Automatic annotation (TrEMBL), chain A:
PANTHER family: FATTY ACYL-COA REDUCTASE CG8306-RELATED, MALE STERILITY PROTEIN 2-RELATED. InterPro entries: FAR, FAR_NAD-bd, HAD-like_sf, HAD_sf, NAD(P)-bd_dom_sf. It comes from the Bacteria. This is HAD-IB family phosphatase. Residues 13-344 form the Thioester reductase (TE) domain. The lineage of its organism: Bacteria, Bacillati, Actinomycetota, Acidimicrobiia, Acidimicrobiales. Pfam families: HAD, NAD_binding_4. It comes from Ferrimicrobium acidiphilum. Gene3D superfamilies: HAD superfamily/HAD-like (3.40.50.1000), NAD(P)-binding Rossmann-like Domain (3.40.50.720), SG protein - dephosphorylation function (1.20.1440.100).
Automatic annotation (TrEMBL), chain B:
InterPro entries: LarA-like, LarA-like_C, LarA-like_N. Pfam families: Lar_N. It comes from Ferrimicrobium acidiphilum. This is Lactate racemase domain-containing protein. Residues 38-228 form the LarA-like N-terminal domain.
Length: 774, 528
């Protein structure tokens, strides 16, 4: 029946690359051989709509079944025959269609509008543009295109069951306008308000006070990383700030009117607008509840993207989410994606006189209780636990179904404690010793952030106690004949919740999340990820750039000055020099952490008047007594390994050339600072030109790569601190050596190799080295 | 009259035995019936050392004229001297080298010689630091020679200043310091602390290049040097002697001066270290307890500084000068007279307490490779005729064997430990697979030439030094050794002597005979 009803028809589909759209396209191609498709797809910045369709749609594993049945060639031919791609954008009035697009739209017998921004944390104005105005935009374009067309038209719009709001009790399949408690609000005001809020939020994000705050956040994270990186970071933080503000404003507005969030609210207003603007085109509105993985088609468990329930389930299984708000007796309205597709296609085959509504929802027909879902999830993960980093099975927490506020405040409290610890630790000049603890803390911090956002986003949904009536849906299901039922499902009664959750949905979710489902192999490991990374560094055509201080040596400019200054004087004076440096240490440290260039220039003034020849004469002793004893043997070995592999090695340092000259044979090239000397061979204390600090270091690396004929991807940078970030970022591969807390966190996030190199054991720590004749 | 060394058999009344343990000591009770080999007491030193030097220079042995008659104003004179690796610990000032060199320089001055150069005969050892040179030569010599560039250190990698002297009949290359070879007279000033030192080895090794040294510093030679302390049964020495003949035939004139020391190794505050335990008086006991308690509370690097500052009150027992081989025979007799003790029969287990110092960690750290070398190279080889331990027996070394390194003096050791020993401990494999790349490494060569680093190949020689012992032994246990570092060396560690003996029994059988070499002070076993 369905097949014949849609036979010879052309469906114009928006949102085809989404979760629902993908399943819809697949079902049409598979189950309705005489039905053709036109897909409205927004071209990307650098890709055509056709390329996007191929990449984002047809390569999805949703089509594996068809591809296997037909063979790759035939599958291609099938698409070429039955699918037309129409470039266009739902966000633009008139959809941005060209003449060919106009023609395709005018030929469409049914328009299925499924494009939406489904993320529950969409920005308010964005949700308004897409969800509120989008459907009507498509409708108007359709009306314009169909003006002179005689064939019957039909518009199917995909909405959401949650347009009914955070209500309790029955929600019928009717227009929102006839439902009780529906707030009658003029849509245009909301549109204008959202647009105005965007403008004002953008403006206030540029207020000096906001920018100052963001700047201090960026500095706290990156340290003295240089102007370019900091400003980039501040701009990113500003954009995030605007986004957060717009999300919060949307949610506040929605909740003030009785919707859980801006998504449901804009969808609801979108429906209302569409109703009034449809003209005489018959309109079917399909309202699915929470769409989850497929019950049967294209194969059980098929899912696309990480959706609403999955992150919560995975957080729960990982033990991150110790509790989640919700009403245990409440109904979780979940609907498999293939049932929604069935409802949409069946609705498309049954154009109403005027408007008809369908709830693609299970709650009234075959309800799944929240308690039952939780116990099924518990059962599944008791039998199939996830494993943590060190290979232990993770025990899953018992949920107590508390109220939302309670969970939120618990999470907030733990997060505050962890945040404070992280802030405290990153202020301390710690290296390697505390690192493991730091890593754990950072992970906990991220976990808590995530858990908190889930509760905020989805808590309202879990508390929703509305029951979505589905009489119209059942009518559609009843109209299917046996042949249809082989390829298409609609009826929620088909779902056996226990087997669906345990055998179909959860395995799919776990696989999708790439969670660790097996204990680590206890077989002895030959190579770790680090070893593989390390080995890969030493292959190929490479340029390796090394920072010096704390990367190759546990030395710094203050130390080396102390050694050199004391080497030439006797007993009492040595102590005096060392003592004055010690007294000044806090001030020097503070200056260093603010701006490295300023610090170096300030500090290097001390060399004024020193005799260059005398310093150069000290070089061998300086090498033995200071540089080598402060060196990291593994670091030296790494430089040498690069050279042995035929790589070009460069040392980029802010140290003075005469202080590091004895080390220069280690590298192919040593880029250090040259201090000028006067005619008597005495140092001036001045270093001409820009110092190789911050961005300059990144630029230097780029220039080096160019000069010596290396691609950026072939460069490797080794450095220890966030002030070297520009160089690390510029390099193809970055290695963080003995990173400070900030750099460690960044490095972990970016998957950089972290090396812990230390001085050879055996010598005590020399705090301020005093030079002496060896 | 100093008492000769002797072998004590442990019985019920024997007090616990003192074991060296790096920069500390252990008192261990050895099983009844174990033997302890005590060194002879220090021989009486010569009263008038300067007089003895003058006598030796004026009355050379062998077919040589007195030194003064070999000198003339137009000549090129080079004086080479042993480096910082001798003696151990360093000698309390004045160092015997400074006395001998002063006497030689005085004669040179009298003869009007102006072209005089001093060369520290480093071979592939690290360059000496200024204070070490000042100590060895005395301030007078240093201040006279150094500022005018007349004090140099041998640089085996300075190819422009090396010259090929010839080849032995076995194809062994002799490549030496050009200045030394082209001088009209080469005077070599030795300190012959043990019987290995001196003879043709002084010039043929001390002033040679890597390309020359590698002909005798290799596994095959070392396995056939039984022991390398016994010059007449040492392939190492045979090779050096062949080279010595090539040098002589090439017309290089050498005036060899060898000096011998007694075994007065420790200053008065450490007197208990030179005494036999049952003869300790109240003061010795007190200073032992005070020392070892203080050491327990001292961080290792400070303890090391304390021990490295020990200067030994050696007495000079002889000075002999003249033709190389004739001089060396006299020297050997004197060394044996001081150190040799007759022992009857080998044992299943040999225990050794390793002290804080070996030839290559003066003013530095005894790293695990040097621990290995000191135990299985030097102390194991302190024998004549037969090793103290039977073939297939076990050596127990007492040392903390911490994985500590001096990255300035021993840079290639760190890499040897991390890159080579992680792959294999087999000397033959190590030699064939890794030696060349370390020896030719430009970074190590840079550090050897400009800083104070041992040559890149040096840790390999340390490993070959123990090749004979590895070949001979059934097992090696390091008592109190860091387990990981000890495993890296290919050995086992034990935390107590009882455990160590238990582990040894599983190799040599249930009722082993045990010998302990109570050294230092130095003692050499003559095993029949």
């Amino acid at each position: 029946m369905l097949e014949s009803a849609l036979s010879g028809k052309t469906l114009f589909v928006t949102g085809a690359t989404g979760f629902l759209g993908t399943a819809l396209v697949e079902t049409v191609l598979r189950a309705l051989p005489e039905t053709n498709l036109v897909l409205l797809i927004r071209p990307g910045r650098n890709v055509t709509a056709e390329a996007r369709a191929d990449k984002d749609l047809f390569r999805n594993n949703c089509f594996d079944r068809l591809r296997d049945q037909l063979g790759a060639e035939n599958f291609k031919a099938l698409i070429a025959r039955r699918v037309r791609i129409c470039p266009g954008d739902v966000g633009t009035d008139g959809l941005g269609l060209d003449a060919e697009g106009q023609r395709l739209l005018s030929d469409a017998d049914v328009v299925i509008h499924s494009a939406a921004t489904v993320s529950f944390d969409a920005m308010f104005d964005q949700a308004v543009e897409i969800n509120l105005l989008g459907p009507t935009r498509v409708m108007r374009a359709y009306q314009a295109a169909r003006e002179n067309h005689l064939n019957a038209s039909h518009f199917v719009s995909v909405s959401t069951a949650y347009v009914a709001g955070s209500r309790k009790g029955d929600a019928p399949e009717l227009s929102l306008s006839v439902q009780p408690h529906y707030p009658e609000i003029p849509w245009l005001q909301e549109v204008n308000a959202a647009r105005a809020q965007r403008t004002s939020t953008e403006a206030s994000s540029r207020e000096p006070s906001t920018l100052a705050e963001l700047r201090s956040l960026a500095t706290a994270e990156l340290g003295a990383a240089g102007v370019a990186l900091l400003s980039e970071k501040v701009e990113r933080l500003r954009a995030d700030w605007v986004k957060d503000q717009m999300v919060a404003k949307g949610r506040a507005r929605a909740q003030s009117l009785g919707w859980p969030d801006a998504y449901a609210m804009t969808k609801a207003l979108g429906e209302r607008l569409l109703e009034s603007e449809r003209g005489d085109i018959p309109l079917s509105i399909v309202r699915p509840s929470i769409i989850e993985s497929a019950l049967r088609d294209p194969y059980p468990g098929w899912i696309r993207g990480f959706r609403m329930a999955e992150p919560i389930i995975i957080s729960f299984a990982r033990g991150l989410l110790k509790d989640f708000p919700g009403v245990p007796e409440g109904i979780v309205d979940v609907i498999p994606v293939d049932l929604v597709v069935g409802a949409i296609l069946a609705a498309a085959a049954h154009p109403p006189e005027t408007i008809k509504y369908y709830h693609a929802a299970s709650g009234s027909q075959n309800p799944l209780k929240y308690r039952q879902l939780v116990s099924l999830i518990r059962r599944y993960f008791s039998d199939n636990p996830l494993y943590d980093d060190i290979g232990q099975a993770i025990a899953i927490p018992e949920w107590t179904y508390p109220a939302r506020g309670q969970v939120e405040s618990t999470l907030r409290r733990s997060k505050r404690i962890v945040d404070t610890s992280v802030k405290l630790i990153s202020k301390l000049p710690l290296r390697s010793n505390f690192t493991e603890y730091q890593d754990q803390l950072a992970e906990t911090q991220q976990g808590l952030e995530r858990a908190g956002s889930y509760v905020e986003l989805y808590g309202a949904y879990a508390e929703c106690e509305a029951i979505y009536l589905a009489d119209n849906l059942m009518e559609l299901a009843g109209a299917l004949d046996d042949r249809d039922r082989e390829t298409i499902s609609i009826d929620p009664h088909l779902i056996n919740w226990e087997s669906f959750v345990l055998e179909t949905h959860l395995p799919s979710v776990v696989e999708h999340a790439r969670a660790r489902t097996r204990p680590k192999s206890s077989a002895p490991k030959r190579t770790s990820r680090e070893d593989r990374l390390r080995a890969s560094l030493l292959t190929g055509h490479r340029l390796a750039a090394f920072d010096l201080e704390n990367t190759i040596l546990a030395a710094n400019v203050v130390d080396s000055f102390s050694w050199l200054a004391t080497a030439s004087v006797d007993g009492g004076h040595k102590l005096a020099i060392a003592a004055s440096l010690l007294a000044e240490a806090p001030q020097l440290l503070a200056l260093d952490s603010r701006d490295r260039s300023d610090f170096l220039r300030y500090f290097y003034r001390r060399y004024r008047g020193a005799e260059l020849a005398e310093l150069e004469r000290r070089a061998p002793e300086f090498l033995t007594g200071y540089l080598l004893r402060k060196s990291f043997p593994l670091g030296l070995a790494r430089v040498r390994a690069h050279r042995q592999a035929g790589h070009y090695t460069v040392c980029i340092t802010g140290a003075l050339s005469f202080a590091v000259a004895p080390l220069s044979p280690l590298f192919d090239e040593m880029l250090a600072l040259n201090m000028t000397a006067d005619t008597n061979g005495r140092l001036t204390g001045e270093v001409p030109g820009a110092l190789p600090i911050g961005e300059a270091r990144g630029d230097l690396l780029r220039k080096l790569a160019q000069t010596h004929g290396y691609e950026f991807a072939e460069t490797i940078a080794y450095a220890d601190s966030t002030s070297d970030l520009p160089m690390l970022e510029a390099a193809g591969t970055a290695v963080a050596v003995n990173p400070d807390t900030k750099l460690r966190q960044l490095a972990r996030r970016r998957g950089w190799l972290i090396e812990e190199w230390s001085r050879a054991r055996g010598y005590g720590n020399i705090f301020l080295p005093i030079g002496r004749t060896l | 009259m100093p008492r000769p060394g002797f072998v004590l058999e442990v019985d019920r009344a024997t007090p616990p035995t003192l074991f060296w343990h790096g920069e500390s000591f252990r008192l261990e009770r050895l099983p009844r019936g174990s033997r302890i080999l005590y060194p002879p007491e220090p021989l009486n030193p010569i009263g008038d050392v300067r007089g003895a030097i003058d006598h030796a220079l004026d009355n050379p042995v062998g077919d040589v004229q007195p030194l003064s008659s070999l000198l003339n104003p137009n000549m090129k004179l080079t004086i080479a001297f042993d480096d910082v690796s001798l003696p151990l610990p360093p000698m309390a000032a004045p160092d015997i080298r400074s006395l001998v060199i002063e006497a030689v320089l005085e004669r040179a001055a009298q003869a009007g010689v102006t072209d005089v150069v001093l060369i520290a005969a480093l071979a592939l050892h690290r360059r000496m630091t200024e204070s070490e040179l000042r100590h060895a030569l005395g301030n007078r010599v240093y201040n006279a020679m150094a500022p005018r560039g007349q004090l140099t250190q041998h640089d085996a990698e300075d190819k422009a200043n090396m010259t090929v002297v010839g080849e032995t009949d076995r194809g062994e290359l002799v490549e030496l310091n050009r200045r030394a070879v082209e001088s009209d007279l080469l005077v070599y000033v030795n300190i012959n602390l043990v019987s290995m030192d001196g003879g043709h080895k002084s010039v043929a090794t001390g002033l040679a290049s890597y390309d020359s040294i590698k002909f005798h510093h290799n596994v095959a030679t070392m396995v056939h040097s039984r022991s390398f302390m016994d010059r007449h049964n040492s392939e190492l020495h045979s090779s050096n002697w062949r080279m010595g003949h090539v040098i002589k035939d090439a017309g290089v004139k050498i005036f060899q001066i060898e000096t011998t020391l007694n075994t007065a190794t420790f200053p008065d505050s450490f007197r208990f270290l030179s005494k036999r335990e049952w003869e300790w008086n109240l003061r010795d006991r007190g200073s032992f307890i005070a020392t070892s308690e203080a050491l327990k509370r001292t961080p290792p690097h400070l303890a090391r500084q304390i021990f490295q500052s020990i200067r030994s009150p050696y007495g000079v027992t002889g000075v002999c000068a003249g033709e190389v081989e004739a001089v060396h025979e006299v020297t050997l007799e004197r060394v044996y007279q001081q150190q040799l003790v007759r022992v009857d029969g080998q044992s299943d287990i040999l225990t050794l307490g390793l002290p804080f110092i070996g030839p290559y960690n003066v003013n530095s750290i005894m790293n695990p490779i040097l621990v290995y070398c000191l135990g299985l190279g030097y102390l194991f080889n302190m024998y004549r005729n037969k090793p103290l331990v039977r073939k297939g027996g076990v050596v127990i070394l007492s040392h903390p064997n911490r994985p500590e390194f001096d990255p300035a003096f021993h840079p290639s050791y760190v890499d040897f430990f991390e890159q080579v020993l992680t792959e294999t401990t087999d000397p033959l494999v190590i030699e064939s697979k890794y030696e060349e790349s370390f020896a030719r490494d430009p970074w190590y060569i840079h550090l050897y030439r400009t800083a104070n680093a041992y040559h890149g190949v040096h840790p390999f020689y340390m490993w070959y030094w123990g090749a004979h012992a590895l070949d001979h032994l059934g097992g090696v246990i390091i008592l109190g050794g860091d387990p990981k570092a000890t495993r890296r060396l290919g050995f086992q560690s034990a935390s107590t002597m009882a455990d160590a003996l238990e582990m040894a029994r599983s190799i040599v059988g249930p009722d082993p005979s045990i010998t302990h070499l109570h050294s230092p002070p130095l003692v050499m076993a003559d095993v029949y």
